[in-house]
């Protein structure tokens, strides 16, 4: 990309103009897009995100041959184009950053749970279910799978499954194709037990066995949920930070109800569940909660 490819932006009377393409973006356009995002995804776009919205959508709008964000908003309002453009909008405006073993303390808690209780339940033939809610491109649930297999290499032979859901169809496509991908690490402290999930101290390979443990599905967390059986472990990390506090209150309630007694709920490093005990949860580690009632 050359310097001339980057539009120089300036604001005049509440409008953003690109010298390159004469694509107009008004405050009203921003509010319309923000309203659609919050209504359909729960994600709140604050005024400080106006430039981000422009930067992430402008290429698509030019590709469509539109002259303004108002015309794009019209597509989002048209029943015949809404579903297609909604998916494009979500893909553009949801961050989806993830990494293998991100926030590693949670995987240490999962390992401890496996060695203390879950492993015995699995060996007894009981159903064990885990959920990665907001799985993005799949590194989180696959880290969960590798952790289980590191504790017991025969885990995949039992009634164990990891549900991995996300609102971004494109990220889910990436997740489903991640088999055999190699991941390199800048730090070598991620080890579990004596052998660990890493083929060496700085590399992990997504095996077919780990991938088979994970079921990737589309799901919008603010819509109605299917009739889940209770989960033993839920990771819902770095999702609630994008929601309104009222949406979060409902989310925490629903996640608590979805957990089995004794189950583990892990949230993001910048998230916490206020008055968690009223939901039958108690803190049990860094941004982690146990279902007690």
The average pLDDT value, as a whole number, equals 86
Query: CATH superfamily of the largest domain, called what?
Result: Vaccinia Virus protein VP39
Q: Which spans have pLDDT < 50 for at least 5 consecutive residues?
A: 1-14, 185-202
Proportion of residues in extended strands: 15-25%
Shape: globular
Rg of Cα set:
21 Å
Second rung of CATH, namely the architecture of the largest domain: 3-Layer(aba) Sandwich
Assign a percent range to the helix content: 25-40%
Put simply, the count of helices is 9
Query: How many domain regions?
Result: 2
Indicate the topology.
Layout: E1 9-12, E2 15-18, E3 25-26, H1 27-41, H2 50-63, H3 69-77, H4 82-93, H5 105-123, E4 128-133, H6 139-151, E5 160-166, H7 169-176, E6 182-184, E7 203-205, H8 208-212, E8 214-218, E9 231-236, H9 245-258, E10 259-267, E11 281-285, E12 288-291
Commentary on this structure:
The chain is of the alpha/beta class. The chain is built from 9 helices and 12 strands. It has a 7-stranded mixed β-sheet. Strands 1-2-3 form a 3-stranded antiparallel β-sheet. The longest helix has 19 residues, at 105-123. Mean pLDDT is 86; it is low at 1-14 and 185-202.
Task: Compose a concise summary of this entry.
The chain has helices at residues 27-41, 50-63, 69-77, 82-93, 105-123, 139-151, 169-176, 208-212, 245-258, and strands at residues 9-12, 15-18, 25-26, 128-133, 160-166, 182-184, 203-205, 214-218, 231-236, 259-267, 281-285, 288-291. The chain has 293 residues and is α/β, with parallel strands linked by helices. It has 2 domains: 3-93, Chemotaxis Receptor Methyltransferase Cher, domain 1 (Orthogonal Bundle); 105-291, Vaccinia Virus protein VP39 (Rossmann fold, 3-Layer(aba) Sandwich).
């Amino acid at each position: 990309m050359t310097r001339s490819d980057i539009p120089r932006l300036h604001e005049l009377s509440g409008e953003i103009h690109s010298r390159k393409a004469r694509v107009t973006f008004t405050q009203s356009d921003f509010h319309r897009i923000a309203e659609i995002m919050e209504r359909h995804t729960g994600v709140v776009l604050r005024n400080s995100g106006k430039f981000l919205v422009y930067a992430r959508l402008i290429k698509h709008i030019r590709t469509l041959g539109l002259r303004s964000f108002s015309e794009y908003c019209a597509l989002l309002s048209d029943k015949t184009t809404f579903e297609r453009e909604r998916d494009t909008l979500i893909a553009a405006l949801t961050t989806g950053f993830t990494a293998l073993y991100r926030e590693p303390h949670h995987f240490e808690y999962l390992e401890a749970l496996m060695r203390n209780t879950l492993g015995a339940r699995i060996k007894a033939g009981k159903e064990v279910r885990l959920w990665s809610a907001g799985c993005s491109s799949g590194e989180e649930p696959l880290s969960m799978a590798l952790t289980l297999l590191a504790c017991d290499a025969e885990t995949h032979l039992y009634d164990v499954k990891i549900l991995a859901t996300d609102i971004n169809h494109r990220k889910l496509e990436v997740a489903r194709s991640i088999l055999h991908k190699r991941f390199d690490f800048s730090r070598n402290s991620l080890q579990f037990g004596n052998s660990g999930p890493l083929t060496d101290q700085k590399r992990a390979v997504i095996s077919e066995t780990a991938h088979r443990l994970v079921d990737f599905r589309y799901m919008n967390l603010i819509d109605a949920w299917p009739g889940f059986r209770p989960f033993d472990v839920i990771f819902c990390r770095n999702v609630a930070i994008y929601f309104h506090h009222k949406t979060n209150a409902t989310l925490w309630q629903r996640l608590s109800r979805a957990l089995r007694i004794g189950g583990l709920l892990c949230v993001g490093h910048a998230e916490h569940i206020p008055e968690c005990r009223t939901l039958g949860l108690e803190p049990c580690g860094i941004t982690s909660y146990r279902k007690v009632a």
